Amino acid sequence: MKFKPRSEFLKVMQSRGFIHGCTDFIGLDDFLVKPSQSAYIGFDATADSLHVGSLIQIMMLRWLQRTGHRPIVLMGGGTTKIGDPSGKDESRKLLSPQDINRNILGIRQTIENYLDFADSPTGAIIPNNAEWLDPLNYVDFLRDYGRHFTVNRMLTFDSVRSRLDREQPLTFLEFNYMLLQAFDFMELNKRFGCRVQMGGSDQWGNIVNGVDLTRRVRNVEVFGLTSPLLTRADGSKMGKTASGAVWLNPNRISAFEFWQFWRNTPDADTGPFLRLYTELPLDECDRMGALSGSEINEAKIQLATEVTSLAFDRDTALNAQAAARGLFQTSTETDTTLVDNLPVVHIAAAEAGDTGVSIVQLLLRSGLAQTGKEAKRLIRDGGARVDERTISDSNFRVTPDRLTAGILLSAGKKRHVRVVCPANPVEG
User: Which helix (H) or strand (E) holds 210?
Assistant: First the structure.
């Protein structure tokens, strides 16, 4: 943005690096100067938790509320039945209505850690687009709204063109997704007076369609605002690790594992992530982001603790920080209370058998290594440890009795899990 915003929300968005594009910066700024305005972001219910890749959008909603406006968290109970083709190489698995409803409950649990749902002018609301999409008469819908979309233009949007360029199939069902998302914006404007849709930059085409449809049908000026799609400085996708997605729901991930993900932020990302994912003052974010060498590790610890405080709570975040500091000390004995905070990998008794489990298999099962070759290289380089003992033999096996008691399995200095095998049940 080349102009200086007057609205507090856009000041925050601009200064902290949230903005990628906007349909009308000046118009949106004028609109948001007035208090208690509504803006929405939609989330399809493809899992029972959002993951870190969605956190930038959640923080946008949080700042919207903190600057005196009302966030609308739209649950895609209807659109999840189709699947958004944006950024996908193949069609999503279709979920049952029961799965979708269960996922919506889990996502709401995640969102409640970030937003206030109190009955007030700025209290968040969480409608479900199944309310208006499920009863639609398809023929009437095409007649009334399909005429406002041209196939020519729809084919120019990245979500469609990228699939066609890669010669990946795009079903007619998915092709309809952008019409339904545009209809969502118009419906939210009609029901709640919502005049702003926000989302990632990959949603630009869908958002513009909603802006155009609402203007054409309801003769109302509405706005779209997008955030950048982030990758980490090391090239990895935001919210993904070698062992899978980094979830936001505490039922899906341990606080230590979540904290550790942020602690491992690349140096170059530390400053930007402090601005985007914490509420620390900007001058403090910039000061810590400019640190180098070993000093930047304290900035990463602060980042991890602040983000974990939002996703879990402050005490849990501080416990995770204490656990990490204890594990990274050079002493050979580790406090068992710290180990208790680690993620747990369960090994079935049948898998342990009479001879136990090899160190290579344990590294694979725990996600500390992704291939046997990687596991053996870790062992060869002295990075694999069991209960703080370095294992240098790739044929080493952990016996069933040790697994029953539980072991601390480590890969390098920063990645640790507990591995436990329950005792064989006693027959009566």
Answer: helix 204-218
